[in-house]
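Students often ask why inverse folding is considered easier than folding. One informal answer: many sequences map to the same fold, so there is more than one right answer. In these notes we will look at a single instance of the problem. The structure comes first.
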């Protein structure tokens, strides 16, 4: 039974990677941990990181040995599982299931709702920083662009060389963004329409 709403960060679910994925991508049904909060602009999507019962070879800084208590049902009933910090996915709700356990005396399915501790979530997030370092994303710089505090990208050459011009740009950010847009530069507001 697919989920219908975004679960809390740290929830363990089962993700069906069978449809549309092929090795060496992540395949088969496997446990995942929800790592994103609910985001209004991303309805029906959830960011997850894959779990595995198999030890990575070699173990990298973006792997994390996670203790699962209580244990998941078979075939994932190991006390320890590995967070595959380099296997992060934004998946649709139709791929995600609650973990099925046993049935009650009335024959109705019982679902497990395991949520990790805050400390475990922090450790998983550290894996993402390790992934960024491993992929060289911690040293990314964009030639010819700088990022200002508001999040819009400004071409370097557009910054005024006079204090008065710079003050005017700071005082009127909407005209600055419009001039960037006219010149073909990046305007982050276009992404949110």
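Output (designed amino acids):
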């Amino acid at each position: 039974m697919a989920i219908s709403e975004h679960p809390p960060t740290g929830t363990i679910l089962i993700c069906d990677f069978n449809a549309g994925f092929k090795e060496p991508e992540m395949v088969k049904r496997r446990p995942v941990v929800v790592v994103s909060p609910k985001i209004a602009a991303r309805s029906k999507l959830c960011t997850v990181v894959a779990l595995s019962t198999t030890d990575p070879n070699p173990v990298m800084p973006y792997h994390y040995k996670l203790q699962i208590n209580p244990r998941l049902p078979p075939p994932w009933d190991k006390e320890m599982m590995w967070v595959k910090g380099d296997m992060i996915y934004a998946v649709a709700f139709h791929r995600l299931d609650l973990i099925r356990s046993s049935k009650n005396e009335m024959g109705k399915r019982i679902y497990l709702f395991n949520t990790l501790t805050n400390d475990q979530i922090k450790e998983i997030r550290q894996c993402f920083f390790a992934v960024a370092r491993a992929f060289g994303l911690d040293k990314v710089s964009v030639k010819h662009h700088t990022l200002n505090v508001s999040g819009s990208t400004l071409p370097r050459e557009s910054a005024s060389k006079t204090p008065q011009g710079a003050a005017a740009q700071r005082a009127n950010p909407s005209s600055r963004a419009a001039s960037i847009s006219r010149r073909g530069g990046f305007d982050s507001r276009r992404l949110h329409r």
